[in-house]
Amino acid sequence: MTPYCVHMTAVFLLCGVIGSLLFVITFLIDGATRPGYRPVRHPVSALALGSRGWVQTTNFIVCGLLMTAGALGILLATEHPWLALAAAVFGLSLVASGVFPMDPMRGYPPGTPEGTPEDTSRTHGLHDWAGMGVFAALPVTTFIATLQSTDLLSTVYSGATTAALVVLFFSFGQAWENDAPRTGLIQRVMIIIGWVWFAVFCGSLLV
Fold first, then answer.
1. Membrane-spanning regions, if any (predicted)?
2. Is residue 146 part of a domain?
């Protein structure tokens, strides 16, 4: 690999680290300070609604693009195309989540009726598909990383992350369908575990 390629690989991987951590920090701060928003109940996607919705929309798109760049860094650093492809789907699905926001529902933004409307918009449907891409592609990424790892600690970490993401994904799905009071909390735990793994993984390829 030429010095230029080495430099660009490091830049792309650093983008993955920054995008992952910035996404988490932004939605945690925005969710904690947003009037009428309940982080324990409401999903992160609901932050893209209302007068301050541009903050989370930007968070989705910018951090999604940064993490997609991280996927390119993974490809250059590991030469494992399937691992990089899964990571790229993860990042691009995050971008799509920002382009296609969910519908107002379940009391947010303030003044929105409680519960889930019987009819939802096409944009909401596309947001759901984008979310499926995010939360399906990430455990696929961690699983491939587990299989391809040659380091015991990395293998255990990636494997444990995969298991946690799968369990939390189904827990979140059930909580969402039942409008459980801790739906947002479950999703946040899932996001933090997954996004931190992505940052650590990209960072490990930098050294």
1. 6-32, 53-76, 82-100, 129-148, 154-173, 185-206
2. yes
Residue 115: inside a domain: no
- Lowest model confidence (mean pLDDT) among 82-86, 103-107, 111-115, 122-126: 111-115
Task: Give the DSSP H/E element, type plus range, for residue 125.
Answer: helix 122-148
Is 72 a member of any domain? yes
SS3 category, 101: coil
At 124-150, the pLDDT tens digits run: 999 999 999 999 999 999 999 999 999
Structure confidence at residue 6 (pLDDT)? 83
Give the span between the Cα atoms of 69 and 71, in whole angstroms: 5
Can you give the residue range of the structural domain that contains 82? Answer: 3-110+120-204
Q: Return the sign of the alpha-carbon dihedral for residues 7, 8, 10, 14.
A: positive
pLDDT higher than 90, residue 207:
no
Determine the longest span between alpha carbons in the chain, in angstroms.
58
Long-range CB contacts for residues 176-183, cutoff 8 Å, separation at least 24: 176/43, 179/106, 179/115, 179/116, 181/40, 181/41, 182/40, 182/41, 183/41, 183/42, 183/43
Domain assignment present for residue 70? The answer is yes
**Which pLDDT tens digit goes with each residue over 48-72?**
999 999 999 999 999 999 999 999 9
Check: CB of residue 5 under 8 Å from CB of residue 63: no
